[in-house]
Design brief:
The chain is mostly beta strands. The protein has a domain at 25-101: Jelly Rolls (Sandwich), CATH 2.60.120. 0% of the residues lie in helices and 48% in strands. It has no helices and 6 strands. The protein has strands spanning 19-26, 29-36, 50-64, 67-71, 76-79, 85-101. Strands 1, 2, 3, 4, 5 and 6 form a 6-stranded antiparallel β-sheet that branches. It is globular, with a radius of gyration of 14 Å.
């Protein structure tokens, strides 16, 4: 059993960058917390694993393939492996729980064992 708490959303000083922090990794699943400040560009590309996002706070658009959605607190998004996707037009800082199944990069032989870091 593992337990996490996310801290309440707060105003952040200008210059805070996109960040991703992996919280848990087991062979069949990885879980992380993704933050994107208002106005940020989402740098991610397609992943080799299925992915679920749970938006905790913030407002933005989410594009997956040709589909475009308005997202906010309580939005849950499923992205199949290999799909092009990104958060866009980030109006308020996004805080998102990210779940990969199987664990992130477990199908990507070129990156096996490396942790993703977003500067």
């Amino acid at each position: 059993m593992t337990h996490w708490r996310t801290e309440p959303a707060r105003a952040r000083p200008a210059g805070i960058k996109v960040s991703y922090r992996e919280l848990k990794r087991v062979p069949d699943l990885s879980v992380g917390l993704y933050r994107l400040p208002a106005g940020a560009k989402d740098p991610q590309g397609p992943h080799t694993e299925d992915e679920v996002y749970v938006v905790l706070s913030g407002r933005a658009r989410f594009r997956c393939g040709r589909s475009d959605y308005r997202v906010g607190p309580g939005s849950i998004l499923y992205v199949p492996a290999g799909a092009r996707h990104s958060f866009q037009k980030i109006e308020q800082e996004l805080r998102v729980v990210v779940l990969f199944a199987p664990a992130e990069y477990s199908r990507d032989l070129g990156r096996r064992g490396r942790r993703r870091t977003v500067a």
